């Protein structure tokens, strides 16, 4: 069994091998010779700053001594957050999760350290170290689970935002767990949490949840908005400053979400009712540039959606008016164009419209379906990928029924890939059904690509995950 020398012993060996005095090494490492002497002789504990200087002076990797530092300065020493915290931040910086976990496992047994660990987790989250942040939040939540503290709710919110990704089944689990903790958040923080939760349920097409959460968000936002302008207190204004959007947006966005839920359930009359509600924002008191930006967006969305709902409900006479509005809004963000194209394709397939010429206007949007969303907000990251996959299916359905088999199968295969990435079984099965319906028109290369994709998905879902790869060979 190999015995690993202590940090001090390795420093002593290095000095002896290099023929360096403590004074000389102190100059090389940028340390006071007395400090070097105190460390080497064991009369002084080693701070993180000193460890950094020592490893630099010895020309070693920055994290070279980290495992031994845990043993000698954490496990075998009195706990001291001022000494431990710089080490933990260094572990995050150099991705030494193994060392961080050893220290955290010790600190979790000390309830007094939970708040310190929470602050560390918040810093990691802000800096984008999501893997470490998720580990910390999960363990802090376990330590706080009987306390019903706000920190517990924040931990759950952060884990929710970290966990939500491409896999819609995983997103559903994350949303279901987090929903129970929303009410424990600060009243202002609840608004962003409800917005994010509604957008995830929106991407999952669970419309009763979208409607329920949107109405809850609107009620809470209206109360906060009334308080803000009734009290006109700086304290309340300061609390709303941490919101990701102006306060009035949560009221109007709730109406937009309710309209969307009604639309998807075929109730276009009620969808229009909600849309007219967010089209008139004369009641908004804010006049700054940010407020004007959002008011302009809601005006644009309402005008486009009023035409879209009329079109989807069967009034095909508004198609050209809808298209003209889209063309006039040439500065519309890419995400809106995907939604507009989806509306057009749903109506085209529903009412058997000829859109061959019209689709040429959307060549850029169709070609960009494979691109990553341009924003990191929950709507863009969750709803738009879902709409892109759905739109790909609708395009495939249209092209195939028009006898445009090359374009149809190309869109169909792309939609299947997106559905697989999203882990959306409904979309994937619909695509398979559409392929089977038109398979007689597929060229051999297309059939090969289709069955290769099916086999790949089968392998990933039923062989690789279950560990049956060896037995299946």
Strand-residue proportion = under 5%
Give the overall shape: elongated
**What average pLDDT do the residues reach?**
89
Helix proportion: over 70%
Uncertain segments are: none
Oligomer: single chain
Q: Which structural class do the helices and strands define? A: mainly alpha
Radius of gyration computed on alpha carbons: 29 Å
Topology, number of strands: 0
Number of helices: 25
Helix and strand sequence? HHHHHHHHHHHHHHHHHHHHHHHHH
Rounded to the nearest angstrom, the distance between the terminal CA atoms is: 40 Å
Please describe the biggest sheet, giving its number of strands, its sense, and whether it closes into a barrel.
none
Structural features, described:
The chain is an all-alpha fold. Helix content is 73%, strand content 0%. Helix 2 crosses helix 4. It is elongated and about 90 Å long. The chain starts with 6 loop residues before the first helix and ends with a helix.
What does this entry show, briefly?
This protein is an all-alpha fold and 473 residues long. It contains 25 helices and no strands.
List the helices and strands and how they pair.
Elements (H helix, E strand, L loop, with lengths): L6 H12 L3 H8 L3 H8 L7 H10 L8 H10 L5 H13 L3 H11 L6 H14 L2 H15 L5 H14 L4 H12 L9 H16 L2 H25 L2 H7 L6 H18 L3 H12 L9 H24 L6 H10 L5 H18 L11 H5 L10 H24 L3 H18 L2 H14 L5 H21 L4 H4 L1
Helix pairs in contact: 2-3, 2-4, 5-7, 6-7, 8-9, 9-10, 10-11, 11-12, 12-13, 12-15, 12-21, 13-15, 15-16, 15-17, 16-17, 17-18, 17-19, 19-21, 21-22, 21-23, 22-23, 22-24
């Amino acid at each position: 069994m190999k015995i690993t020398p202590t940090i001090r012993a390795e420093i002593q060996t290095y000095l002896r091998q290099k023929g360096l005095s403590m004074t000389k090494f102190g100059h090389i490492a940028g340390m006071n010779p007395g400090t070097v002497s105190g460390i080497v002789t064991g009369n002084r504990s080693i701070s993180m700053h000193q460890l950094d200087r020592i490893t630099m002076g010895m020309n070693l990797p920055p994290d070279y001594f980290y495992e031994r530092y845990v043993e000698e300065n954490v496990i075998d020493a009195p706990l001291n957050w001022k000494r431990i915290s710089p080490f933990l931040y260094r572990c995050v910086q150099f991705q030494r999760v193994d060392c961080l976990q050893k220290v955290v496992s010790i600190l979790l047994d000390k309830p007094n350290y939970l708040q310190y660990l929470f602050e560390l987790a918040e810093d990691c989250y802000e800096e984008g170290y999501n893997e470490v942040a998720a580990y910390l939040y999960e363990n802090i939540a376990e330590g706080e689970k009987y306390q019903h503290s706000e920190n517990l709710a924040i931990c759950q919110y952060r884990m929710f935002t970290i966990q939500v990704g491409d896999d819609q089944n995983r997103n559903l689990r994350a949303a279901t767990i987090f929903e129970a903790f929303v009410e424990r958040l600060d009243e202002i923080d609840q608004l962003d949490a409800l917005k994010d939760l509604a957008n995830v349920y929106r991407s999952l097409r669970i419309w009763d949840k979208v409607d329920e959460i949107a109405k809850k968000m609107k009620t809470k936002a209206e109360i906060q908005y009334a308080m803000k302008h009734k009290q006109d207190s700086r304290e309340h204004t300061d609390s709303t400053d941490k919101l990701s959007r102006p306060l009035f947006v949560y009221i109007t966005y709730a109406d937009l979400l309710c309209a969307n839920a009604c639309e998807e359930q075929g109730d276009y009359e009620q969808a229009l009712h909600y849309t007219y509600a967010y089209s008139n924002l004369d009641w908004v008191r804010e006049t700054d540039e940010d407020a004007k930006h959002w008011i302009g967006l809601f005006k644009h969305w309402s005008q486009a959606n009023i035409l879209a709902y009329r079109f989807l409900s069967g009034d095909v006479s508004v198609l050209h008016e809808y298209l003209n509005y889209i063309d006039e809004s040439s500065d519309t963000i890419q995400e809106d164009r995907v939604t507009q194209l989806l509306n057009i394709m749903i109506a085209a397939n529903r009412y058997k419209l000829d859109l061959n010429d019209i689709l040429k206007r959307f060549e850029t949007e169709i070609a960009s379906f494979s691109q990553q969303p341009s924003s990191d907000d929950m709507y863009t990251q969750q709803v738009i990928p879902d709409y892109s996959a759905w739109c790909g299916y609708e395009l495939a359905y249209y092209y195939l029924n028009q006898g445009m088999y090359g374009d149809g199968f190309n869109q169909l295969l792309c939609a299947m890939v997106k559905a697989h990435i999203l882990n959306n079984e409904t979309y994937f099965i619909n695509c398979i059904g559409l392929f089977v319906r038109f398979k007689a028109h597929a060229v051999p290369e297309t059939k090969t690509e289709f069955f290769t994709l099916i086999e790949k998905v089968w392998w990933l879902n039923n062989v690789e995950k279950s560990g049956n790869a060896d037995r299946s060979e």
